[in-house]
Amino acid sequence: MAASLFFSTCALAGNEGLQYEYKIKAAYLYNFTKFTKWPLQPASESAPAELNICILGQDPFGDAMDILKGKSTAGVPLVVKNISRTPRQDECQVLFISKSEKLQLPQVLQAVAEYPVLTIGDMDGFAMAGGCIELVTVNRKVIFNINLQATQRAQLKMSAQLLELAKVVID
Q: What pLDDT, in 10s, does the model give residues 106-164?
């Protein structure tokens, strides 16, 4: 039940709709980190010092990501980074791929497919193209689709609560 409070669909309002939409999407990114498990680090490595949320390409969030300042997931602080190239294996745990990267989407998804990276995007067909989570705006509400094959390939485990809340789960 608690998950539904975090992921309730929110209506987008008036002229501030786009700005508000990305505030909702930033909140989704944060909550996705709470309902996703990454593979354990080898015993020889220490726990990660931070969980990096990377935005690849043109940043549509503006100051909406400010809501993540000071937040943590399972005691691990979140850090938001803007990047302009496909990330290295250990650079990002969450990768939001901006619409500006649409032409490079297949190459980016292929480059990170085997890494434990939760890929998220809001372009049409993102999940069907191999992304983990697609954020969709329908009737001025933000919902999401999950590509379970992509998350499994990335060695990520989604909670059952998260899977229940998804509008579409692609097996």
A: 999 999 998 999 999 999 999 999 999 999 999 889 999 999 999 999 999 999 999 99
Fold of 2-170: Rossmann fold (3.40.50)
Q: What is the pTM of this model?
A: 0.87
Give the pair of three-digit tokens for residue 91: 């650079």
Q: Taking the domains of the chain in order of start, what are their residue ranges?
A: 2-170
Tokens representing 29? 């990114």
Whether 80 and 51 have beta carbons less than 8 Å apart is answered as no
Query: Who's near 5: CB < 8 A, 6+ residues apart?
Result: none
d(Cα 13, Cα 22) in Å, to the nearest integer?
A: 12
Helices (H), 35-147: 105-112
> How many residues make up the chain in this entry?
171
One-letter identity of residue 160: A
The answer to whether 165 touches 143, Cβ cutoff 8 Å, is no
Reference 120, options 151, 91, 90, 141; nearest CA is 151
Query: Residue 67 CA to chain centroid, in angstroms?
Result: 15
